[in-house]
Amino acid sequence: MNILERKLNSKKAVIGIVGLGYVGLPLAVEFATKGFKTIGIDINKNKVEMLKRGRNYIQDVDDIKLEKVLRNKKLFAYDNFDLIPKCDVIYICVPTPFTDNKEPDISYIMSATEGIAKGLRKNHLVILKSTTFPNTTEGYVQPVLEKSGLKVGKDFYLAFSPERIDPGNKVFTTENTPVVVGGVTKKCADLAALANSKVVSKVVKVSNPKVAEMEKLLENIFRSVNIALVNELALLCDRMGGINIWEVVDAASTKPFGFMPFYPGPGIGGHCILIDPYYLEWQARSYDFVTNFITLAAETNENMPFYVKSMVIREISQLDKSIQKAKILFLGVAFKKDVDDTRHSPAIKIMELLLKDYHLNIFYNDPYISEIVVDNLKLKSTKLSKELLSKCDLVVITTNHSDYNYDFIVKNSKRVIDTRNATKNVKNGRDKIIVLGSGARRGYSV
Ligand SMILES: NC(=O)c1ccc[n+]([C@@H]2O[C@H](COP(=O)([O-])OP(=O)(O)OC[C@H]3O[C@@H](n4cnc5c(N)ncnc54)[C@H](O)[C@@H]3O)[C@@H](O)[C@H]2O)c1
Predict the structure, then answer these.
(1) Catalytic center residues
(2) What does the mean pLDDT of the chain come to?
């Protein structure tokens, strides 16, 4: 038995987690809770300081669990890579954003890899978790690690194992969601699978890192394409009038096989579904291959905030006042319900479009987000009250947080645009509500 196997099986292995964000911190807490000494590394000094003071900044991480692993000296946080040699397994969980013109930006992966390479030693296992294009592990990470003079598969081990965490999901967590692993060599895959098996119930091995990298992109592109399909049908329903896409999807969902429901909305956000299709699109171009399907889906989804903007303008242009005087309240600015993440939030995009083009009077409320910046303007979440709702000319539901009382919202609002069908169970005041894709107002255009 290899020394790393022995250490993992006896819980003597030290786990290093580089990047303590939405992916890295839950993983670190999971390993620490299972009894592994875990060293978290993040270049963001604020996050490290917060952890040192026992403060949680990730909604999905349980405060009590975090407090316990810090108190028991199982989890430590650092803002440098000095302790890399002390780790046995090192996970890379850093961001993979795109550039302004939507090309992959793997600079965070590369700088994390450089930090690890300086302390790389024999028997280290490095596992890349950040979503990225195929061949990042072998084509970019491996050469930097091998500059140390150590050889992959012989001296150290390297694998790609994508993350599947779904923030806000109370049913599927790190522990009960299977993970995929692709190792550069068979030994790399076996060791990475063993490490993962200490915190997840099922590990699926694939033949190499490229398969695992592509598999993660397929998962997210699958969602992007299917959301785009219903978004397109939502636009068609509004054009045709009289057909409600939400009812159509619910009816189709009664088929017990061969159909999976996806719902339209004001656009997609977050750090995954919006960005990842562009990673593959960019890579495909270097093979003289145009990913028509994937690109069309991304374009369709990115049009949705523009469409909602046109819905807003149409509604307020019917008021008895100039549109600059109209007061508009946005409910929910997180990119999806019940989370505190505003990355690429469609709500913020819509607000930005309205501020830039029409200088509108905008307010927002979000129980999870106290402050946002829209087009260089700082906005604070306004307390949701009867007075606020009734003073606004239009209320736009952009995120369907579960905490909202939709009966109360509709009752006290003058007019509501609902981009999520959040008001579907509201019985009274339906004549005030315009639901995106419900065919209630014909002929919106993008
Ligand atoms: N958030 C999700 O739901 C989710 C789900 C699946 C996959 N992913 C993927 O996981 C990766 C991480 O996403 P996230 O949401 O956790 O990002 P995040 O921004 O929440 O966290 C990343 C952390 O890495 C730190 N960091 C950046 N560069 C660093 C470096 N060189 N060294 C050390 N720390 C560094 C940042 O300060 C940040 O705290 C991305 O590739 C993302 O696509 C995210």
Answers:
(1) 272
(2) 95
Which two structure tokens, joined as six digits, stand for 316?
A: 């307020």
- C-alpha radius of gyration, the chain, whole number: 24
Right CATH number for 224-435 from 3.30.830.10, 3.40.190.10, 3.40.50.720, 1.10.150.130? 3.40.50.720
Q: CA–CA separation, 367 vs 187, rounded Å?
A: 47
Nearest in space to 400 (alpha carbons), one of 379, 419, 425, 384 = 419
Domain ranges of the chain: 3-207, 224-435
197 CA to centre of ligand 1 in angstroms:
22
276 C-alpha to center of ligand 1: Å? 14
Q: Is the pLDDT of residue 357 over 70?
A: yes
This prediction's pTM: 0.95
Compute CA distances 316 → 265, 309, 327, 365, whole Å: 20, 11, 9, 20
Tokens of 310: 């046109």
pLDDT over 90 at 443, yes or no: no
- Does residue 372 have a pLDDT over 70? yes
Q: CB within 6 Å of ligand 1 — which residues?
A: 18-24, 41-44, 47, 93-96, 108, 111-112, 115, 129-131, 163, 165, 167, 271-272
**Domain at 3-207, CATH from 3.40.50.150, 3.40.50.12780, 3.40.1190.20, 3.40.50.720:** 3.40.50.720
